Each structure stands twice: as structure tokens, then as C-alpha cells.
Amino acid sequence: MGSFSIWHWLIVLVIVMLVFGTKKLRNIGQDLGGAVKGFKDGMKEANDTAKTPEQPPQQVSGQTIDVEVKEKTKS
């Protein structure tokens, strides 16, 4: 009594197809598939960039940066 039989699922599928139409369901399926593919590609890129070692920042020599230090005042 707690689970549905195959006939229940077929009736639900027919009702969903009548309400939404096959074209709209196809578009939803394509959008969902594209989202999953994009997620997989993003995960693959994240793993690829994590595997490549980062280069340390290059130090610039011969340049002096002049700054002025001011005292922090309480307001």
C-alpha cells in the first residue's frame, strides 16, 4: 500500500505529458542535461587547475614604493 505500482506511474506520466506537452518536457530535459554537462566540465577544470603547480609571484627589482604612515585616531 505504501509504494506505487507501474500502472500508477504510467498514469502520472500520461497526466504530466497532457499538462506540459512533449515539447516543453523535451526542452526541460535538454536544459537539465546541459546544466549537468556544464557542472561536470566545471569540476574537471577545477581538478585540472588544482593539479598544475602555481608559480610564485615574480619580484620586481629596482623599484621603490614610497608610502607615508599616519597614526590611527579613535573617533
Concise overview:
With 75 residues, the chain is mainly alpha-helical. It has helices at 6-20, 22-51.
What would your notes on this structure say?
There is one protein chain. The protein is 60% helix and 0% strand. With 75 residues, it is mostly helical. It has a domain at 21-51. The longest helix is centred in the middle third of the chain and has 30 residues, at 22-51.
Helices and strands, in N-to-C order?
Answer: HH
Q: How far is the first residue's CA from the last residue's CA?
A: 71 Å
Sheet with the most strands, sense and barrel status: none
Total beta strand runs: 0
Radius of gyration: 30 Å
Strand percentage lies at: under 5%
Q: Could you report the average pLDDT, rounded to the nearest whole number?
A: 82
Tell me the number of helical segments per DSSP (H or I, 4 or more residues long): 2
Low-pLDDT windows of residues: none
Q: Roughly what percent helix?
A: 55-70%
Find the structural class using helix and strand composition.
Answer: mainly alpha
Write the topology of this structure.
Blueprint: H1 6-20, H2 22-51
Keywords:
75 residues; mainly alpha; 2 helices
